[in-house]
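Students often ask why we bother encoding 3D structure as a string. The short answer is that it lets us treat folding as translation between two languages. Here is a chain of 340 residues written in the first language.
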Amino acid sequence: MEVVIRPVAHVAYESVKTDAISCTYDMDGFTLMNEVLRAYRLDREHFRKCAYMHESRKFRVISHGDKKPFVITTTKTERWDSEPSATEQILNTADAERCESLCMTHFAYILSAFPADAFMQCLRQIEQAVQMTQLKRVVLDVDERYADVANDVYRQVKLKIAEDDHRRVHGNRGADKYHLILGLGSSAQRLVLRYKSKEKNAGCSGNLIIAALDANATCLDGLDFDREEMQALVDGAARVLLVVCAGGRDGADMAKFAVQHAFTKKIPVDSILSKPFEWEGSRKRTTALSLLEDLRATGANVIVVESTSLETDDLGWEEQFMQLDAAMLEEVDQWSLGLA
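And here it is in the second language, the structure alphabet:
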């Protein structure tokens, strides 16, 4: 699942394209919900008539509408953390509507100090839902004044999850090194998380950490990634497997950085790299070939998964991608078995 922290200006709320939007029900005066409804050009009078749904003290999460984007409203609470399962209930509601993307607006306008504990609680519940939801993208709106703080909190949450996975594997022996499978880029992230779910269900993860990193949007050149988080993951590893669905700039940049950092720490690196299909265009194939040369020049052992044999008239593009994913997962499995 991709999680995007989106800075929101106080001047005017801007809509984002998602299957659902969640907000706290409050239409009294100049409120965030009124701004959200205005931005999406939704009928505010209709929602005023729904006030009775949130009048009781009981916390409720309600989905409105019969087509996308759905509006999910929650009962206003006295404190940010008054309802510990609020995020989980919102995610479940979006899931029930078969949504693949969700924008959560609850942290967009903050009048006092940033509620770091509540934001961390929200992020944890999103990360815990990765294997149990069909949501592929969650956008978290954050008051632009606290965007840096929010990103720091998210970094802490992801590192804590990696540490918890480490402790789950071999207790509190902090000095022990683990083997790391690291998916880089959005496509590899989905692939690796599928493998993580498979390993968890099989109960055979051993001394193995499975993680994934994706690029995040910036206002500069489009994409960037969290170098500190990547360094922290790589530094604790005895050996690293990078999984990259080649052709995209974000995955290529992250892979080159990871290999160079591991090289300075004398940590051996293997890479599983898929080549783009011919029909994806020459630019992607050129990017993939350039990445292959760079990784090998740095000293990484690279396993290339070819796509050429899958390009047949008998398979549509979705089936071709599914078979390429299966071939990638088979290589990941072989690497894991080789650690035993």
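Translate back mentally: The chain has ten helices and 13 strands. Keep this in mind for the problem set.
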